[in-house]
Amino acid sequence: MTTTTQKTEPRTASLVLPIAALLGAIVSVQYGATLAKGLFADVGAEGATALRLVTGSLILCVVMRPWRARPTRGILPALAGYGATLAVMNLLFFMALRTIPLGVAVALEFTGPLLVATLSSRRLIDFVWIALAAAGILLLSPVHTAHPIDPLGAACALGAGAAWALYIVFGQKAGAELGHLTTALGMTLAAVLVLPIGLAHAGTALFQPPILFGALVVGLFSSAVPFSLEMVALTRMPARVYGTLTSLEPAFGAVMGLFLLGEKLALTQWAGIAVVIAAALGAASTVRTPAATPEQVG
Q1: I want to staple 257 with a disulfide (CB 3.0 to 4.6 A). Which of 21, 71, 79, 263 is the partner?
Q2: In whole angstroms, what is the distance from residue 286 CA to residue 127 CA?
Q3: Shortest CA distance to 242 belongs to which of 234, 232, 251, 253?
């Protein structure tokens, strides 16, 4: 009895730091999204996406020095796919935020990695979680509520989820060779792809000092801070615990949207977010081989 207690208590205590770090990373990412939404009035969703990716890639390049990587020719298609899906994921997510609340957008986007995690096992219980997630999506998109969801915004969020699913697949392939440098390389490629779109939409407004300062703050909270905290968490906790905690992201997004952006949700939409979280929690707790997802930078 005494021996068991001595073995389990240090293990439990050792999870305090990584759990706190991961929760901090989730809060930082969602706070960064609220700050990015504040840039929409000046540069639009396209310009905000470009600024977020450019500042994020610059920060990651300084921290990680990705030029040290020597990718082989065989890994280049996966790396290109990783960067391209990262660009699409960020762009569609920010376009969704133009018309739907942050919590709803995060919940809809989260269906992407949930699908990857469950389909990798193909057990009956995994399809139960998919069905539960589908029910949550239906609750998130009612027609007759006090706060109806814009169909185009919902479609953009679901598209971001699909891009996130592909991002995981490409990221695992590229990451097997390039390790943590994959994130910096992929974000740099994504920035190159989205910057022309941002320039076409916002023009020289992207280079105004107040906008650049805001973009730097967004990059810090969306990339540098959460990446550093996630590295602390990923190296110190089991994959199942990681998957369970990240399942709470839609709730954090909804709370951030409520208190920082004044985004009020109908009761059915809160229920939809709760159902999606339940599906993600169920998948994380029952899947046999949890998908190791690279850092979410969307």
Answers
A1: 263
A2: 12
A3: 234
Least confidently predicted of 63-67, 188-192, 235-239 = 235-239
Is-contact 169 86, C-beta < 8 A? Answer: no
> CB under 8 Å to 154, separation ≥6 — which residues?
96, 100, 104, 108, 140, 141
- pLDDT score for 146: 57
Rounded Cα–Cα distance for residues 298 and 294 (Å) = 11
The whole-angstrom separation of Cα 114 and Cα 8 is 30
Determine the residue type at 85.
T
- Cα gap 31→54, rounded to integer Å: 18
CA–CA gap between residue 91 and residue 198 (Å, rounded): 10
Amino acid at 169: V
**What value does the mean pLDDT take over residues 175-197?**
90
- The span from the CA of 157 to the CA of 150, in Å, is 11
DSSP 248: T
Task: Give the span between the Cα atoms of 208 and 213, in whole angstroms.
Answer: 9
pLDDT at 16: 82
Domain ranges in the chain are: 31-286
Among 139-143, 198-202, 285-289, top mean pLDDT goes to 198-202
pLDDT grade for 5, boundaries at 50, 70 and 90: very low
How is residue 117 written in tokens?
């995690």
User: Cα separations (Å) of 74 from 77, 152, 189, 190?
Assistant: 7, 37, 17, 20
For the whole model, what pTM was predicted?
0.84
Taking the C-alpha atoms of residue 257 and residue 251, their distance in angstroms, rounded to an integer, is 10
Which residue has better confidence, 186 or 240? Answer: 186
Q: Say how far apart CA 216 and CA 210 lie, in whole Å.
A: 10
